[in-house]
Amino acid sequence: MTTQNTMQDFTIRREGKPFLKFQGEIIGQGETEPSAYRGTKVIIFRTPSGNYVVQVVRFDRTVGSERIDGEAFSDVSSIIDWLRVDGGERVGQASQQAIETACNKDENFKSAWIEIVQ
Questions:
Q1: In the prediction, which pLDDT does 96 show?
Q2: pTM to 2 decimal places
Q3: Is the dihedral of CA 92, 93, 98, 103 positive or negative?
Q4: For each successive 10 residues of the chain (118 residues), what is the average pLDDT?
Q5: E strand or H helix at 112, and its extent?
Q6: Cα separations (Å) of 83 from 43, 76, 108?
């Protein structure tokens, strides 16, 4: 359960879209090799009302650039679908790390990120 004490104010600058401003807490993070010249970082936030915001940063240190995208979601399955589109048929390494970290802090992620076979 989240408490008001863990909430912070965030503003995400997105390329070609309006800023996303919200209050929330980080529940999941993942990054491709942090020392790599090119890569991706994914951060998952939960808001006080139980909604989610996902930020994806693609960076290229060889030219000093980054492309930032972010989206707000009301359910976890939409987040996973959005990240799948981003990484092809499967989620990418950074996305998977962020999702699995979020599973430790959020029951909705824990329930959504499992495939049960009977």
A1: 94
A2: 0.89
A3: positive
A4: 72 94 97 83 96 94 87 96 78 94 97 92
A5: helix 107-112
A6: 11, 11, 16
What pLDDT is attached to residue 1? 45
Q: Specify the DSSP class assigned to residue 5.
A: G
CA distances from 98 to 18, 25, 62 (A): 24, 13, 25
Q: How high is the pLDDT of residue 87?
A: 56
Residue matched to tokens 């104010």: 9
One-letter amino acid at 64 equals G
Tell me the residue ranges of DSSP E strands in 61-100: 65-73
CA within 13 Å, CB half, 79: 28
Do 25 and 80 form a contact (C-beta atoms < 8 A)?
no
Distance CA 85, CA 61 (A): 24
